[in-house]
Amino acid sequence: MTPRHHLDPATLVSHAAGALSPEMAAVADTHLEGCAYCRQQLAAAERVGGVLLSQQQPAASEPQQAARLREDMLARLQQPLPAAANDPSETTNAPRSLDALPRPLQPYFGKSWKALRWRWMAPGVHMIRAPRSSGDTLILLRIAPGKSMPVHSHGGSELTQILKGAYDDELGHFGPGDMADLDSDIEHQPVTSPGVPCICVAALDGPLQFRGWLARKLQPMVGL
Ligand SMILES: [Zn+2]
Prior knowledge:
Blueprint: H1 9-16, H2 22-33, H3 36-56, H4 63-77, H5 106-109, E1 119-122, E2 125-129, E3 137-143, E4 152-153, E5 158-164, E6 167-169, E7 172-174, E8 179-182, E9 187-188, E10 191-192, E11 198-204, H6 212-222
Antiparallel strand pairs: 1-2, 2-3, 3-11, 4-9, 5-8, 5-11, 6-7, 6-10
The structure holds zinc ion.
């Protein structure tokens, strides 16, 4: 299946520069495993970054230079790609067990779908939170089919990769392999598709805020 929603160029540049948190990188890598288009974009960002760094050293470590470098990389990435970038025939990964979680998520959630221990959070919503390794939050969410989530916007940056099932919102249809790389000012109301639960993995900028048991129950819904 070819993903239709991709990582934002700014996220790819940050990833190429090693500037994503481990949690954000795990979600980005989960998308990259299944997306030849984004792998090509990332490779381009890494190439451009290498060239620019070699031109600008040694000052590239200074914040202003680093910001300019990032702008240059973004500008070059937004130029048209060679036709090969869209070649869907490029293979993703060797076949693996149907029970295997995506490899980038295994350090956080284990190897097996069946072994996951889902926690009930709200009607139709289950969650697993990965043990904290940096300041960011990494969660698996399982949302029942045909469920409408509250309208919400995003407080910080967030990457959400759809693993199973699907949802629709104002931005379109998101199915397995799709990435929702959303700005903090986007307001949307996802509705999960009928049939099977929607399972996604999300990395959130910063820790979840807990204020009482109700907020604690609602937070994963608001965080999606
Ligand atoms: Zn992609």
